[in-house]
Design goal:
5 helices; 174 residues; homodimer; Chalcone isomerase; alpha+beta
Chain lengths: 174, 174
């Protein structure tokens, strides 16, 4: 009996600690973006990497796509549609040649991430809340401020092209 | 007295669990690379993102530089030299045009990560063990197998160019 009590205390203490250590993905900071009401998820910069890309043209950036734990798990298990709670983040930085790296490689070939550019974008899966847009809420923030409604009106019409992949363009880079 | 005993059990139980949950950065998988004896750190694909880059030429890749907790902390705090235990990983994937993205953007501009290429590289900080190479051990693995000694002989001579930044080329992308 005493052992059971001891074990119970240990488990309860443990549960409290585990809860306090859990990522607070239910909370979000700052102003909500229009249409979908998405806020910047806390600590998204700590999320794991899904893949990387380079856009030429006006965008002219190097970008990283990160996922929260739910998104990464779904990617790795090939689970589609993504479960509710999945969030995918798109970060981007200016595409700049690296003189330093070019000297090291002995030829001009190296491009690295400069200052952040083109805002930060998020896709948030909530199949009930965002039922009319494939279960995804979309948001873009420029310098921490939500982009305007016109920008947010363009998200789904483009992502609809990849409806067969649950509206997500990015593939996981192993 | 009983409360103290209960608390003690809880703390001990907790300590056991925390230890078992801790990243086993002391353990590494597979064959050790030549010269520096570095093994592939477990779960490095889960590490946080330091930055991204694109190399043209023979390399022709998109790359991501990830860091373990010690490395990320040092980067964010601007701490140099990096403390012992810091590990930096360089992953790379083939640089491939994305027809799908190009259609979405309405012009050929999008390049994404294809299959992995150019191996995976690591820099491991151990100021005593690697005293003769700036405190860093270097390793490259191709398809999970260490590259040969000749490859490993080229690492430090190149990284020496950025001695003033503790021999690390990559800057942190905020």
């Amino acid at each position: 009996m005493r052992r059971i009590a001891l074990l119970l205390v240990a488990v309860v203490t443990l549960a409290g600690v585990v809860v306090s250590m859990a990522p607070s993905s239910g909370h979000a900071d700052g102003e909500a973006a229009p249409i979908f009401g998405v806020k910047i998820p806390p600590r998204y910069r700590d999320w794991r990497l899904i893949s990387v890309a380079h856009e030429e043209g006006n965008l002219n950036d190097l970008r990283a796509i990160l996922g929260n734990d739910v998104a990464i798990k779904a990617y790795r298990e090939g689970k589609r549609p993504f479960p509710d709670g999945a969030i995918i983040a798109r970060l981007a930085w200016s595409y700049v040649p690296s003189e330093e790296n070019n000297k090291a490689f002995g030829r001009p070939q190296s491009f690295v991430a400069g200052p952040p550019t083109n805002g930060v974008q998020f896709m948030v899966k909530d199949s009930r809340k965002y039922a009319s847009t494939g279960g995804w809420g979309f948001a873009q923030f420029n310098d921490g401020k939500p982009a305007d409604e016109a920008v947010h009106n363009t998200c789904f019409s483009c992502h609809e092209r990849v409806k067969d992949r649950d509206f997500v363009f990015t593939h996981y880079a192993p």
